[in-house]
Amino acid sequence: MKALVVNYGVGNLFSISSGLKRAGFEVEISKEIKPADLIVFPGVGSFSAVSNFILTNSDIINDLKKSGVHFLGVCLGLQIMFEKGTEGGESKGLGWFKGVVDKIQANVKLPHIGWDKIYVTGDCELSDELDGKYAYYVHSYVAYTDDNVVMKSNYGIDYPAMICKENVVGTQFHPEKSSGTGRIFFENLKRWVSR
Predict the structure, then answer these.
(1) What is the pLDDT of residues 81-91, one digit of tens each?
(2) pTM of the model
(3) What CA–CA distance (Å, rounded) separates 136 from 93?
(4) I need a surface site. Which of 17, 37, 131, 140 has the fewest CB within 10 A?
(5) Backbone angles phi, psi at 168, to 5 degrees
């Protein structure tokens, strides 16, 4: 199975690529959006920094989504799937899910860096065996939404830890940095993509 990790000019592409390779994916990192079994939006950077790249390529991205290609968004990659974000000024996202990405509105230290529990709140095979496990986070922004949220976490407020709909999944946590929890997620991902 082929996974394309999108290089939109920010973020650590090595760790997500390594996690995918360990799960059995053949990984390519590319600035060009093209067909693969799985397209991955990786997870470090600001919403505004990748918004222009994503919107410039939105036609091919949406065409591939309609054709049945699977998509994984990690952290920022999840956030860009929503309607808009406020980080670095208001910017448009892909609009695959309803909601706005904004700073964590709680009296907590930001950025949120570290381990927190994830809880299943909806139905998605990608959350199999993950309920109550700990996952690793590095973020200051979250999606304010109830749209297709299948897992939540809490850091001052409850927020989406995973969204899932048809051939699209997004995680606010970093599975590639989440040790055993990440291994379970990547095995679920492999099974999901291979169907």
Answers:
(1) 999 999 988 99
(2) 0.96
(3) 24
(4) 131
(5) -125, 130
Kindly report the three-state secondary structure assignment for every residue of the chain. CEEEEECCCCCCHHHHHHHHHHCCCEEEEECCCCCCCEEEECCCCCHHHHHHHHHHCHHHHHHHHHCCCEEEEECHHHHCCEEEECCCCCEECCCCEEEEEEECCCCCCCCEEEEEECEECCCCHHHCCCCCCEEEEEECEEEECCCCEEEEEECCCEEEEEEEECCEEEECCCHHHCHHHHHHHHHHHHHHHHC
Structure tokens, 185: 């997620």
Asked if 11 and 44 touch (Cβ cutoff 8 Å), the reply is yes
Distance CA 65, CA 58 (A): 10
The whole-angstrom separation of Cα 100 and Cα 81 is 10
Residues whose CB is less than 8 angstroms from the CB of residue 33 and which lie 6 or more positions away in sequence, other chains included:
4, 6, 39, 57, 60, 61, 64
Mind listing the pLDDT tens digit for each residue in 10-50? 666 889 999 999 999 999 999 999 999 999 999 877 888 88
| Residues with a known catalytic role | 75, 174, 176
